[in-house]
């Protein structure tokens, strides 16, 4: 084992603290699919990963890599381009299969995997990362249509990012270089897989976390590699599959859409801010669980738009349909090997189930903290009062009877 890997424990904590300190940093929320061009002949690209794909510094996927790449591909081919993004800064290689969930890759012509930046920063054991990364590639290859291809993008220049321009970043860069070497080796063993180096990041001095201009340059550089591959794929006339998400609860779609437009000013946002202040925790959230996703329809800062249901504390709360308290996830067999919790380092959880109009548990109000606590440290009766308010707000959203929600959902 290289000597630098002895720094794994402090770097994992450094990364978790960095995530918890970044709730006010702009990042995209809402629909992660961007289409450019008219209906009809369309190049469909699926992006899987984190790092540059996450979109720090901008608030819309249209301004981040998905939108910029769709425009770059459209300009190069004159065909429509649809780019879908699956991932989040908190998604590591070990949790990627869960993030993919039941999403089918068969409807895409080209799958681009740019995965590993947080694993590099956290010094994930290389053998573990190789195993998990290879499993992601195997899953994708087993699902794509016969003419589709896969592009593996190497790790970015870690030191180019302001938050990693330090001695810790230098250590992470050593790890990232070894990870990139593996992506090249992996591609050599698969005829439908190509490895490319990550485009250079061109940060603007006034926007060191990321900007539309930076993501545009990154996407245009990547499109140089992708366009010839797409031309080859199009010549084979691949199967195209247009599918729409099916919601298990009618209220989920309204709640998710409202979450992307409220800008932190909805009644649900007020409730989670009250919960965070009342219990002195790192994060409070209202969630709706639907299909294979846990949707954060309101949170006090820093949570993604959604995450895999199977990795969420709240999946247990909804399944049991009763309050659940986890004093320390590291000491709980249900969660101690959870890769998402390993990244975010939020070991304490308390959640109250929220119900639909027919009495079915469909979501939660929950609080999470970066330090373990005793179960008795949280007053569940006080949390229940807030949960009752959240449940009423979800009911209003589901019924379409909240005036503010109707305005938010009205067409522009």
From TrEMBL:
It holds the Pfam family GAF. InterPro entries: GAF, GAF-like_dom_sf, SGNH_hydro, SGNH_hydro_sf. Residues 263-404 form the GAF domain. SUPFAM superfamilies: GAF domain-like, SGNH hydrolase. This is GAF domain-containing protein. It comes from Naasia lichenicola.
């Amino acid at each position: 084992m290289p000597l630098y890997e002895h720094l794994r424990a402090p770097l994992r904590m450094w990364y978790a603290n960095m995530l918890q300190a970044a709730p006010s940093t702009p990042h995209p929320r809402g629909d992660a699919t961007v289409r450019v061009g008219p209906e009809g002949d369309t190049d469909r690209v699926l992006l899987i990963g984190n790092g540059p794909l996450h979109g720090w510094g901008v608030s819309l996927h249209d301004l981040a890599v998905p939108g910029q790449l769709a425009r770059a591909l459209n300009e190069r081919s004159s065909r429509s381009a649809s780019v879908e993004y699956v991932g989040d800064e908190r998604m590591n290689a070990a949790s990627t299969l869960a993030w993919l969930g039941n999403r089918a890759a068969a409807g895409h012509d080209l799958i681009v995997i740019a995965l590993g930046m947080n694993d590099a920063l956290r010094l994930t054991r290389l053998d573990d990362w190789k195993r998990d990364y290879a499993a992601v590639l195997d899953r994708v290859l087993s699902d794509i249509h016969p003419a589709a291809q896969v592009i593996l993008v190497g790790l970015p220049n870690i030191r180019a990012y302001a938050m990693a321009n330090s001695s810790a970043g230098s250590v992470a860069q050593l790890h990232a270089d070894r990870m990139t070497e593996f992506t090249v080796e992996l591609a050599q063993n698969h005829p439908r897989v190509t490895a490319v180096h990550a485009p250079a990041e061109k940060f603007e001095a006034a926007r060191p976390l990321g900007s539309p201009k930076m993501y545009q340059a990154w996407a245009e550089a990547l499109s140089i590699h992708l366009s010839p591959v797409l031309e080859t794929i199009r010549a084979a006339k691949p199967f195209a599959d247009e599918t729409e998400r099916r919601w298990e609860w009618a209220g989920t779609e309204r709640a998710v859409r409202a979450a992307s437009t409220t800008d932190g000013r909805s009644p649900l946002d007020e409730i989670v801010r009250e919960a965070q202040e009342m219990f002195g925790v790192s994060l409070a959230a209202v969630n709706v669980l639907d299909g294979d996703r846990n949707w954060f329809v309101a949170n006090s800062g820093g949570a993604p738009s959604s995450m895999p249901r199977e990795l969420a504390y709240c999946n247990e709360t909804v399944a049991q349909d009763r309050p659940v308290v986890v004093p320390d996830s590291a000491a709980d067999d249900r969660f101690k090997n959870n890769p998402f919790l390993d990244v975010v380092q939020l070991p304490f959880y308390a959640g109250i189930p929220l119900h639909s109009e027919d009495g079915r548990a469909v979501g939660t109000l929950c609080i999470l903290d970066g330090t373990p606590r005793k179960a008795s440290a949280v007053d569940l009766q006080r949390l229940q009062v807030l949960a009752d308010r959240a449940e009423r707000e979800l009911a209003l959203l589901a019924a379409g009877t909240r005036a503010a929600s109707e305005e938010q959902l009205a067409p522009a």
